[in-house]
Amino acid sequence: MRNIPPNFTGDAASLALCWRIMRRDGAVLGFTQHDADLVFGGITHQARSGLDVESAQRQAGFAGSETVLLGVLMSESVTLADILAGLYDLATIETWLVDWSDPTQCVLLDCGSIGRIEASDHGFKVEVRSVIDQLKQPQGRLFQAHCAADLGDAHCGIDLSGSAYRLEGVVRATDGRSMLALDAGGFAADAFSRGLLQVLDGANAGMRADIKMHDVVSGQAQISLWQALPNVLAEGDRVVAIAGCDKLAGTCQTRFGNIINFRGFPRMPGNDLLIRRVNDGEAGMDGGSLFQ
What we know:
single chain, about 290 residues, mainly beta, Thrombin, subunit H, seven-stranded antiparallel β-sheet, about 5% helix, about 35% strand
């Protein structure tokens, strides 16, 4: 049960909403609807940030709740580059009701995490997910044909730090955002498809982006990204491409020699086999194993 300060039951004109964001990199940011900064809990909550509630929905029980915050990029602490770099993904966000005449009088209204963010050059829309949403996440392993592990994680076991799965080089050509070329380094086409690109220097230093496609043309690795980098990528910038995986059993066995750690069920029957008509006496349709 919340402890409501006595003065909250009086004049509501002195109350203001505040939001406190705790990013996964340890940064803590505060914002408020009020027209002046509010300090409580050791955090300065910035005014004039343009952050406001667009919609909010609360439901009883375990249905969860949804809140959408609408903001403009007026605060120096929130940049489009940070949003596109994923620094706010799954960050914890708290909603507080504060007496602006005495900020020590405050009540925590809600706590959740940041979900989908829609960003543009002038503003952003943030989906706030309640803690109840964590109960909706699948637990345990899924019965699926594709591997459930990510290449290089603890379940996979592949060491991606070696030169066999990394290509470091200098950008030779680029469109400035989502396409680039660098020396192929002896790697065949598709080696880095579904992989990861890390930018080591330049305007995007420290940024990461998912690789959509990797091809080799005239001795150069042609790489396209799923999403454009937040800043302009320039020729001469140093980058590292890290291998990707299509999560198929054949790829795991032939390319990585790691079938013992494959986390999928490649021989599971598909829907076409499950719903097809069975003819009397048909081999393999007696209820036994399809693979012996």
